[in-house]
Amino acid sequence: MIRSRITGTGSFLPKKVLTNADLEKMVDTSDEWIRERTGIRERRIARKNECASDLGLHAAREALKAASRKPEDIDLLIVATVTPDMPLPSTACFLQKKLGIKTSAAFDLNAACSGFIYALSVADSFIRAGNYKTVLVVGAEVLSRITDWQDRSTCVLLGDGAGAVVLEADRGNRGIMSVKLHADGSKWDLLYVPAGGSRQPATEETVKERLHYLKMRGNETFKIAVRTLEQLVVDMLDEAGITPDELSLLVPHQANQRIIQATAKRLGIGMDRVMLNLDRYGNTSAASIPIALDEAVRRERIKPGDYVLLEAFGGGLTWASALIKW
């Protein structure tokens, strides 16, 4: 049986650090308030001339190096993002050019914070079907461009960054074991950016009304996320026939420390088996899981044969999970 296996990981974070103390000078908030409600202490912010494909380029190069692959080895490139370089063409095409990949397929995917797992699932399906052998999956976000820095309920949460993995065909018993994708479009208005699309094109009025920034109903999103993620993980493990005790590492979307802790507690998973870095990077949407996964690999928190579970919840609403035997 052909499986897809992650053979290399990479990540990139911009140099600029925006601390909670910095935010205290911008909006009515405090370091204590932010840490208690989110677990975030600081986040990274891209330079004015940096876009999603720039961040993705650094992460992709790191992943290729880790996999001992060259750009010409890649036959499919997928970029998960909600902050593309432009509406058209895709960020994947810009990244393809920057990497020097010739004419391999390249496209973007938007599933908000669940985007990386969605992209991983697509890549896995293509590999299992025999369409492609070596796929580069990138999650890249410049969320600072859609952040309302006057809205303390959202600006404290978000950061910029990129992560990437190389996925290759493998006939062994390791790799991606299962992926589950879900969505509920009836709750789209819990997390969204109102203007800038075909429904409400950009105008002077939409700019004045700050409609090009992320809007979120945080309390409702929190409650749904905890309940949904618990069931998502339970269903995934039940289907795979393994228990939470057999999981070596849970790599969740880095949205809110309270969501992550509540989910882990309900599942009986100790925080020593949960990968956390949102205190340093905040919520980087589609980039958060590959960034966290790369950090876990570099810190040697994952070894061959380990069961690793990825899970995410985001706008759409979307939610997804992936079980990997490393």
Which properties best describe this structure?
326 residues, alpha/beta, Peroxisomal Thiolase, Chain A, domain 1, 2 domains, 5-stranded mixed beta sheet, 4-stranded mixed beta sheet, 11 helices, 13 strands, globular
Taking pLDDT < 50 over at least 5 consecutive residues as the criterion, the unreliable ranges are none
CATH homolog superfamily of the largest domain = Thiolase/Chalcone synthase
Give the oligomer, counting copies of the same chain as homo and different chains as hetero: single chain
Distance between the termini: 16 Å
Number of helical segments with 4 or more residues: 11
Number of domains: 2
Overall strand count: 13
- Taken in chain order, the helices and strands follow as EEHHEHEHEHEHEEEHEHEHHHEE
Rounded to an integer in angstroms, the radius of gyration calculated over CA atoms is 19 Å
Per DSSP, what share of the residues sits in E-state strands of 2 or more residues?
15-25%
Spatial sequence of strands, sheet with the most strands: 1-7-6-4-5
At the fold tier of CATH, the topology name of the largest domain is: Peroxisomal Thiolase, Chain A, domain 1
Q: Report the structural category.
A: alpha/beta
CATH class of the largest domain: Alpha Beta
**CATH-derived architecture of the largest domain:** 3-Layer(aba) Sandwich
